[in-house]
Structure of Lysophospholipase L1-like esterase:
Amino acid sequence: MFMYITFTETTVQIDLWRDYVLSSSKWIWRIIGILSIAATLLLIAGFAYAVQDINHPQGSKLNLSAPSAQPEGTAPGNIDQKKELKAAVIGDSLAKGTGDSTGSGFARRSVTKLAEATGKKVTLLNNLGINGLTTSGLLPKLKEQGTRYVLGEADIILLSIGGNDLFQGADLLSGSQTGTATNDGEAADLDPDELLEALPQAKKQLQQILEQVRKINPGALIIYVGLYNPFGDVKDLKVAGNQAVSEWNSAALTVINKYDNMTLVPTFDLFQHQLNKYLSTDHFHPNDQGYERIAERIVQGML
């Protein structure tokens, strides 16, 4: 009797366990079925998207503009984060270094001084300075592929332009493209009014140049070398020349003050009372000492 009861209880337990397993299996198969349906729907959606992408591709727009020299995560004109620096120079005879007996000008002198001050390798990519260049001549140069490439590769761009627009363009001193003072401190065939008349158009072109250089390389530090009056010791040119140079530098600042990566390096005060000391024999371009002082100012403006 006892054995029969025990067998019966065991049989009941087995039946209960079998019912539990069968019930659980139904839920498992239901879950598997739902997941299978979801996976099938996802596969169909992915296949439909792939077909649409092949027939109607939606790729990103191709940027054909000149690549920015600004590295990702680096502020425009910030040279502190860069281990090596590349500089380019563009503009007139001052950019070229005319009047410097060593041929270094402010370009090579600035590169050398910057390397010494920072301990970094600083390379001068190219000096694109041209004797006699004016703003009218520089604007089309900025459209040339070679010029755009050099400027686009630079971390630092040194720009000098405007002296020929004001002084050579107005034909202030006859018989010389660069100008020489007469022995008595007077100027031959002088018309100071022409000097001031040349300002409006030239200033407009200067602003266009600064904007274009920045568009070519928005990540570079752009340094514009301000003008000085090389004829401050010529009686009839002192006042008019100082006025024209002041207005010119002010026009440059109008653009430069808009951007963090632009700087104007003033030179007017360097030469104002030191023309005999810092001008070369042509009485227009700086000499070795003059370029040295300009280079010092340039490096100070970068650090």
User: Anything to note?
Assistant: The beta strands are 84-91, 121-129, 156-160, 221-225, 262-265. The CA atoms of residues 3 and 260 lie 99 Å apart. The two ends are 106 Å apart (CA to CA).
